[in-house]
Design brief:
This protein is α+β, with helices and mostly antiparallel strands and 468 residues long. The protein contains 13 helices and twelve strands. A hairpin with a 4-residue loop joins strand 11 and strand 12.
Length: 468
């Protein structure tokens, strides 16, 4: 879940907006819920008082035969009206049991009796009474009560419910009861619909807004990745918000400066190489004129060493010029071809087959880096084993040997230019000390690296090339 969240800037922005929307709606709903409940309770009870008052005035003008029918016809889903001969108020809470028996609906639904039952047992009625919290009878003081007779009211505390009794002109008592089990959820449904509609609108807006930000940043990241691997990259379009467009423009300027720096450095190295070869050639011609053969041979050998070191230094310095084009390469075929070529030159190499491993790289650079690793392994151990495998993010090339290895303290030092474990500086025993430096430079041009690990016995060189 976290990786999905971190994977996209657009997802994070849209997710945060939706979280803010839901929290805002929840806080607003929580703050308004109590006031809304109180308002609905007041409105429902006020409507019941007004209807009861009107009914009280109407039935007093009717004949006895019509009164019962009018009271039954006035009933609704949540209200019932009936008459009693005696004053019901002394009964206190038992009045609700009487009301329950008189009102099979809706109170029968509240008590959940069997559908075919016409009456309810005393136990069920008692449970109904126990579930309610009642106040005592009090005089009706609601301004909506307009009937001339005074009425008494018995409210349901903290619930939507009310009982009213009033003595009629003929001495009988009008009983009225009103009760709702819950507050209608129409407002909640409307709030939910409004929240969903607002969330959809925010998602659409967020997609549009984040695309304007994420697309330039994605193009910028791709260009930076190409430069990190030494590839040519076209200028990034300067679009999007002003800050993003400015970032893209600054990146393009940096890329152009790097390109000019590499070109100037390459030209300078070419000039240095030419200038160094000229005096070395002159020295060789003059040494040939020396009559002492031993002195002449020593000086010639020294000049050859200087020329070899100069060539190696220039080659190492040019290694990051990145003139070779990057392309998709079958790494298994490339390494197998390299191993075959080196076997023809007398190197003892075992290659572990690796089919179907492809990677974008500069193949000549990879060949050169692996060849240097193989030459080192064969020089110190007599034999090298080359293998290749694919990980989710990179191609890993391993060159292993069973030689004397390298002390742990020198595993990083050997990558320094001209660093040699063998201090004699004899090229037959240690080379110029640039092989591993050049190999690491090639790996880092591709955005990867080389590390050395103990092989027990021997040494293992691991070259990592990131893949897109």
């Amino acid at each position: 879940m976290i990786s999905w969240w971190k994977r996209s800037l657009g997802r994070q922005i849209i997710g945060l907006m939706l979280i803010a929307l839901v929290l805002g709606q929840c806080i607003g709903f929580a703050l308004s819920w109590n006031s809304r409940r109180a308002a609905l309770k007041e409105a429902a009870e006020s409507e019941f008082v007004s209807r009861t008052s009107a009914l009280c005035e109407v039935i007093q003008t009717m004949t006895e035969d019509f009164k019962t029918n009018v009271l039954l016809a006035s009933a609704t889903t949540y209200t019932r009206f009936w008459r009693s001969a005696e004053d019901p108020r002394p009964e206190g809470r038992n009045w609700y049991i009487v009301a329950r028996n008189e009102l099979l609906t809706p109170l029968s639904d509240i008590l959940k009796p069997p559908p075919q039952a016409a009456t309810v047992s005393n136990t069920a009625s008692e449970e109904f009474v126990q579930r309610k919290s009642f106040e005592g009878w009090s005089a009706m003081e609601n301004p909506l009560w307009t009937c001339p007779q005074a009425a008494s009211v018995l409210p349901f505390r903290d619930q939507i419910g009310l009982g009213i009794v009033v003595e009629l002109a003929d001495g009988s008592w009008l009983n009225a009861v009103f009760y709702k089990t819950h507050i209608p959820n129409d407002g909640t449904y409307q709030s939910l619909v409004s929240t969903v509609a607002t969330g959809i609108a925010l998602c659409l807006f967020g997609i549009f807004a984040t695309r304007r930000i994420a697309q330039p940043l994605s193009a910028l990241a791709d260009a930076a990745e190409k430069i990190g691997r030494g590839e040519e990259s076209a200028p990034v379009p300067e679009r999007g918000p002003r800050d993003i467009a400015r970032l893209c423009g600054t990146f393009n300027q940096m890329q152009e400066r790097l390109r000019r720096f590499v070109e100037d450095r390459t030209q300078m190295l070419a000039a240095i190489g030419h200038d160094l070869r000229t005096p070395l050639t002159t020295m060789r011609l003059r040494v040939e004129q020396i009559e002492d053969p031993q002195l002449r041979d020593r000086l010639t050998e020294t000049i050859d060493d200087m020329k070899s070191m100069t060539d190696a230094t220039l080659s190492f310095a040019r290694a990051d010029a990145a003139t070779e084009k990057t392309r998709l390469v079958d790494m298994g075929s490339l390494l197998e071809s390299l191993c075959d070529d080196m076997r023809e030159l007398g190197f003892d190499i075992d290659f572990e087959e690796a089919d179907g491993i492809s990677c974008r790289c500069r193949p000549d650079g990879i060949r050169r880096a692996v060849r240097n690793l193989v030459e080192n392994a064969c020089q110190y151990a007599g034999k090298a084993t080359v293998s290749c495998k694919r990980t989710p993010s990179a191609v890993v090339i391993t060159v292993a040997d069973t030689g004397p290895g390298i002390p742990d303290a020198d595993l990083e030092q050997v990558f320094l230019p001209f660093f040699r474990l063998e201090q004699s500086r004899n090229r037959d025993t240690g080379g110029t000390g640039l092989g591993l430096s050049i190999a690491r430079a090639v790996a880092r041009q591709h955005g990867g690296d080389i590390r050395l690990e103990p092989n027990k016995p021997g040494l293992r060189a691991v070259l990592t090339v990131p893949c897109q």
